Structures are given as C-alpha cells and as structure tokens.
Amino acid sequence: MLNILCWNCRGARKKETGNFLRHLIGEHGVSFIGLLETKMETWMRRDVDRLVGRNWDFCFQPSHGRAGGILVLWKNMLGTFQISFQSNQCIISTLTRSTTIAWDIVVVYANNDMYGRRQLWEDISNHLSAALPHVVGGDFNCILEPDEKKGGKPFTYSQSASEMGGFYGC
Questions:
Q1: What is the mean pLDDT of residues 10-19?
Q2: What secondary structure letter does DSSP report for 64?
Q3: Does pLDDT of 56 surpass 60?
Q4: Domain residues of the chain, as ranges?
Q5: What's residue 67's pLDDT?
Q6: Residue limits of the Endonuclease/exonuclease/phosphatase domain (predicted)?
Q7: Does domain 4-139 sit in CATH 1.20.120.50?
Q8: Radius of gyration of the chain (CA)
C-alpha cells in the first residue's frame, strides 16, 4: 500500500515540523511525502536524514526568499522514482513500483496569483502521461466550496476557483 502525505508545513527546518512529521510517518505508515512552503533555499542529504531518517530519497524545489518551496520525500525501497518536470509551483514525477505498476504524482504549491497559477495548469497538462493514473496533491491556494473556508472574508466563487474547477472537471 502507498500512503501519501501532502502538508503545508510553513517551514521545514522547524523542530516541531520534524517531530510531527516523524509521528505521522509512524502512525500512518507514510511512504511518500510532499512538504509545501518549506521556506528553504537549500536542502541537503543531511537535512533529510535529520528530518525523516536515512532510508528516504528526495527532490527539492527551493523557495524564493522566505516564501514557497517544495520538498518531495519517498522511502527508497518504494520503487523507481523519476522526476519528469519541476518548477516553482510543482514537482511532477513517475513512481514505478514494479514493471507493470506506475503512477504519475504531482506535488503542488500554487502561486497565490490567479495569473501565475495558470502556468501551473498548463505545466500539469503538458507533463502528465495520459496512459498512467495520477495523484495530484498539495496547496492550491484556492478553494472551490464555502465549507473549505475557515474565517476571514466571506467566500465568493472567483475566477480562480472557476479555473481550478474547470481544470479538474468539477
């Protein structure tokens, strides 16, 4: 079984992030992780070892200043993991668990701006294989339904929500 976790951690080097992440891995048998808004410009092997342990591989998309950043982690015994596309908004990869089982996996940290997010929809469309099932997860910085919203200004169905809904066929 493949248990996937996508989490907007708002800072990957925080002690609390590592503690909670290791708890989630143990509690739920997580073998694939997408950390979003890492706020990190550099990330190395020793950082991964400290965060989740030595039996994990990773792919990292740096943040721009103190905003953004994507870190994808997978247990190295999981299978073959090949990155097919990487940008400041997503990491797209193919996970092959045997010679016949493959999935496209997309980890997203979308731009706050609707116009910037349009590039994300184009990138995902251009880099996913139509022949493979896919999993898309992360922080889209957009909501489709009023019950997804907690606090702040009242929900309004915006152009951003319309574009996201159109992309996913909602």
A1: 94
A2: B
A3: yes
A4: 4-139
A5: 82
A6: 6-155
A7: no
A8: 16
